[in-house]
Amino acid sequence: MTSFDSLTPTQFEELAYDLLHTMDFVNIDWRKGTGLLSSPSDSGRDIVCDHLRMEPDGSQHFERWFVDCKHYRKGVPPKELQNLLAWAEAERPDVALFVVSNYLSNPAKDYLETFKRNNRPAFKIRVWEKPQLTRMLAKKLVFNENSI
Questions:
Q1: Percent of the chain at pLDDT exceeding 70
Q2: Tens digits of per-residue pLDDT, 38-83?
Q3: Burial of 85 (0-12, 13-18, 19+ CB in 10 A)
Q4: 46, 16 in Cβ contact below 8 A?
Q5: Which of 135, 68, 133 minimizes the C-alpha distance to 102?
Q6: β-pairing, 47-54 with 26-30?
Q7: Which residue from 105, 99, 81, 106 is spatially nearest to 137, judged by alpha carbons?
Q8: How far, rounded to the nearest angstrom, does the alpha carbon of residue 2 sit from its chain's CA centroid?
C-alpha cells in the first residue's frame, strides 16, 4: 500500500488536485492562496471543483465539490473536520469531500455520522482515505500506461 508520509502537506494537496484532474473534474480551484508551505486562508476547503454528472435520462449537470485535504500520519481527529462542514453548510456545495492521507480516527467517523444524523445536510459527505486513494492512483497509473 502506498505511503504518503514523505509528502509535505502542500505536496499532498497537489496530489489530490492532480487526481481530481485525471478524474475529469473541471473548474478546479486550488485555494492555496499563498506561496508558503501551508494554506491558512483556505476557509476549510483546499480545492473547489465541479464534476459533470450524467443522469439516467441523458441530462447532465455540474455538481460543486468542496475538498479538504488532511495530511496526517495518524488518524484525523474530529475537530479537523469542522471547518469544511461549517463552510459547506454556509455555501451549500453538492459534495463535501475529505481527502485523507491516512485514516479518519474512529471518533472522527462517529462525529461525521452524528453530524449527518443531527443536521441532515443538504450536501453529501464523502471521505477518501488511504486505501481508496491508493486504489484510485493505481487505476490512473495503469490507465495512463495503457493509453501510451
A1: 84
A2: 555 555 789 999 999 999 999 999 999 999 999 998 999 999 999 9
A3: buried
A4: yes
A5: 133
A6: antiparallel
A7: 99
A8: 18
